[in-house]
């Protein structure tokens, strides 16, 4: 139920530079807690992973204490090592309280930061997990050097982060950069946020699986591969199943990515009208499909971009850091103190 | 065809403070050029107005030279008086070129700033007119003291400006804060920007008049007042006609504002998911209707806000500076140099 | 748990005409079984009502046998009395099998007619319950004399029936006149039929309650009356609560009817483009609100009608027969044999 | 500017049956008037074609008189030969007046039948052109033997006809079967009928060309073939150009058909919920693309069909009679007198 790794020589030992200041990052998601020791160049010296022990904040704090303790022992980091947390919830402006979590029933106005600090006996920095991912990509990944950067994490839902002028932007109340809740379909699908027609209902892993089930339900022969991947039970079909089928060229699975990619690109075009970033970095599990997702997204982005042809177009690129980005960015934000926050 | 005013004692003479540094602002819209001399507190010492002489940039520059000359003579401002221009187009990041103007057929990649500078024989600062309005409201109006401010100008279309941390944000390529081109209806009404379903097709003066015509066309008795205001010819019905009727309680006109206000609030809710500002300032001609517009907008905003009840809500307030805001903000941005730009 | 009534002199005794041929009708809904003895003028001589005993067809047949037996004894009808059933499911062309029931999980390809016939020991006629209501309104209610008639039953969902040239139309496979499943919102709300954006998700009692909850959730003061009617628990709010509040002028409740009425009228306009009926008869529990529903429906119908002003407009009227229409029509269809079917 | 043909032996001379009763049919469209002599088996003995001389009814009547005269002389038909007209407008219930024509600006409440009858000196039968096509397909083409038949003519707009129990259905006021004006997108594209979001804005040749222009405008390389077909001028791109490119496998053109086919299938699914026909016959110029259109239409039909998997599915087949169907059906309806009308 838990795993730990130490990065081999390839990632960390090649350098003979002087020892850099380490930090510990923790990524608290709905199903797993991942943590790692990260150096100033974003290299992961070691990491550990646990299932999330329910959503009760004190249990979560216990698990965080465990993984942090394990990493500290293993890597002999001292008590001054900065600790950063990325959490799947909407935090207030100070990163002190989780106000709401559309995809976690239990978190409503929880003083998460103080609970964790008390448990660890030292201060921690907490930010939204998509923000920490965005920060990681900005510092060490596909967003390097970009002063106006939008990151979109396409997983079960959509997470998002905005980095402007070298700072993660949080909005006035901490809930900025929740792009997934732009309304893209009036009177559309209900969302966990309490509204309808949110982007994350159409451009996410959830949508991918919904399309796959619809196709398979309406055209059994078209969906045969998908059904087989789900062991004959559509209810068990997952996003990675659809990705696997699409990679092998299954037309039904490819079509699912076209549909989700279409909505992804449409939403990016709306974001371009609001923020006009230089680059969109697309991460999250669904982006493992690469061009299967980004191809249709770019096509619709160009088609829907206001004033297309008369303005420079933002790049749309894949994230580079993978699923560890959440704790890498959290570690780096903690090390940076408040430098990276706005 | 032209008019000029000098502000009376109420606005400018009360202060005995030392003379403040003056600036000249010019607002270049599709139908009129308005300009004024503005002091450091945002007071207008004098203003002048001309019809826009077609959309040819050189003709526009001639008119700008005329109004600036007239103001300089009248107010004895020196050659060092900063001059700022707010223009109804999408400017590049430096404010040098108009790349595109969804509502002005003629402007495509025009070096507007250099044309005007050459004509005046001195440097000018150029920004989008909705940005200069936003800046004016931030400095002297309904946005004072707000560090995360969205301004939405509801006129024939929708203009918009974003002020963060005391700077107008332009995005990476200069086209940030064109909220009017978020898509709110998939496969919806065509827009001058080349896309479909843009917010400005649903939450603008154009939409107000469209609804008024629809109601009047389908229910002559319901639309009798509106038809009378249009002199019996629906094609001549204007936004101010609908406002006038709504103010007198005409149910059809009130319904038009409910519809436009609904879409306005819906779009603001999406903006809150992207930007999470502390305040929305709503200006433009349609906002003259006050609560007739803002009431329905606030209702739908609260109804559509993601996570409502679990987060602080942005204020939605009326702009305070009226139609002069465009040149007031342009003047102040010019005086500030690059301080207010990002 | 059961109730029975005998109609008083007002409804049935006034006539001294020769005894007319009686028939028994049974209306099988998701929550109740209602049955009555009906004469040739549509008068109800007596009726009885039971809760639906689960959705298992054999249990339903038992209940039908009970209520039919009770009515036969009480009204001394003979073994030749025709028996008609209206059932809340999609029947095949012959009325033999229930193929599907979007709002009843249990019925999938059930030979309902044979099960009931076997249980009663005699033939029965089975039709969709909205079709039997439509037939009742055509024969004895608001649809009298209308040769092109659409009935729309606005209850929890939407039921519908089409009577052309004196016959209930069933389509080629029995599933004609399921208007509630026209798509009115692309990528819209999920429906029990397996599709998205169906009319019955927007113009039904379910939508009424959804809007009421949204308003109350987002504006507690606006929804105070509604919340009080629900005993402080939004989850317990019902359609009749909203109707009661709207009748007393509660603005939030009135707004809910405006929204549902808007969608009702919009769908009727689409039906006019397909069927061009002379009259729409609107029944079902939500229509108890009368003009609160029909006013906004008529307004939107006129606004959305293709070619409005250049064509005659269908009437939109309330049903006249109330909740008994289901068994009244079933009885009459059984008496008519196959005369009323196409 | 005009052309005439006599059908060769293949179509008409093979039979040695006794001479059948001939009729003359005329199809009056927005750009051409086509007419032919048609026998009882639907064979065309000869035909003639002229450009439509403006939309003034009397000029149209002159052209009709010319083409009828020419056919009468050439085929020696007598004065009793029935004459039927199919016209691109909305006729009243009796086929006497054109009430409205969404795609012809000039026709508003025109007594077309009497004008033509007066000009010819004999009675004529007039029906909507899509109805006459539907009748032709029912009698001689892809709709033979089908008692519940929907025909959809996908040309610049969408025409439609409904044949039930061997009769063309006209609705209560003559405007039945104008499926093209179902609303499929709330607040969608404006339509010539005065409403918004009509099906014919999304599933027609007009939509095909719109998509082609969008793709070409946003991705010049993707649209290269299309642009070449349009001679380098997007404004001149036509539906047949897109069909030609799609047939040669051009991905952009294929994608246009996927989009239009998607909307076609979606609308057919809604029609199945209203009418539940046994068969949809798809004709019109866009259907020349065959499976390029019908493949995506069938896929979306199955995906969107309410209760899919629990009900028989209507066939979706191509029309068989081509562009002559309009006058073939008009001739046959005239021969049949009122038999085929309801």
Automatic annotation (TrEMBL), chains A, B, C, D:
Q: Which UniProt keywords apply?
A: ATP-binding, Kinase, Nucleotide-binding, Transferase
Q: What class of enzyme is it?
A: transferase
The UniProt entry's GO CC annotations, sorted and at most eight, read:
cytoplasm
Any one of the GO BP annotations: glycolytic process
One of its Pfam families is ROK
Question: Could you tell me the EC number(s) of this protein?
Answer: 2.7.1.2
> Which SUPFAM superfamilies does this one have?
Actin-like ATPase domain (SSF53067)
Tell me the GO molecular function terms. ATP binding; glucokinase activity
* Gene3D superfamilies, alphabetized: 3.30.420.40
The UniProt similarity line reads:
Belongs to the ROK (NagC/XylR) family.
Task: State the name under which the record lists this protein.
Answer: Glucokinase
This protein's species is Pseudofrankia inefficax (strain DSM 45817 / CECT 9037 / DDB 130130 / EuI1c)
Upper classification of the source organism reads:
Bacteria, Bacillati, Actinomycetota, Actinomycetes, Frankiales
């Amino acid at each position: 139920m838990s795993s730990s790794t130490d990065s081999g020589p390839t990632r960390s030992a090649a350098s003979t530079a002087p020892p850099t200041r380490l930090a510990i990052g923790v990524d608290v998601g709905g199903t797993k807690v991942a943590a790692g020791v990260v150096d100033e160049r974003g290299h992961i010296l070691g990491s550990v992973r646990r299932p999330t022990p329910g959503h009760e904040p004190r249990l979560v704090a216990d698990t965080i204490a465990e993984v942090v303790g394990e990493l500290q022992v293993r890597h002999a980091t001292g008590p001054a090592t900065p600790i950063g947390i990325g959490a799947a919830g909407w935090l207030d402006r100070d990163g002190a309280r989780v106000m709401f979590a559309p995809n976690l029933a239990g978190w409503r106005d929880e003083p998460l930061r103080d609970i964790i600090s008390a448990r660890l006996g030292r201060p921690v920095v907490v930010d939204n997990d998509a923000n920490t991912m965005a920060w990681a990509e900005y510092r060490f990944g596909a967003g390097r050097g970009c002063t106006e950067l939008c990151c979109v994490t396409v997983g079960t839902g959509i997470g998002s982060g905005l980095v402007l002028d070298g700072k993660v932007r949080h909005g006035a109340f901490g809930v900025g950069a929740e792009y997934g809740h732009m309304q893209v379909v009036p009177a559309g699908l209900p969302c966990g946020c309490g509204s309808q027609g949110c982007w994350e209902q159409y451009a996410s892993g959830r949508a991918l699986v919904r399309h796959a089930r619809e196709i398979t339900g309406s055209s059994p022969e078209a969906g045969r591969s998908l059904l087989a991947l789900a062991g004959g039970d559509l209810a068990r079909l997952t996003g990675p199943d659809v990705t696997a089928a699409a990679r092998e060229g299954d037309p039904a699975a490819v079509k699912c990515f076209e549909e989700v990619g279409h909505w992804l690109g449409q939403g990016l075009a709306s974001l371009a009208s609001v923020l006009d970033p230089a680059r969109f970095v697309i991460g999250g599990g669904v982006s493992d499909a690469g061009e299967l997702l980004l191809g249709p997204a770019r096509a619709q982005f160009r088609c829907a971009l206001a004033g297309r042809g008369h303005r420079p177009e933002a790049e749309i690129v894949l994230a580079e850091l993978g699923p560890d980005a959440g704790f890498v960015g959290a570690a780096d934000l903690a090390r940076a103190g408040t430098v990276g926050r706005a």
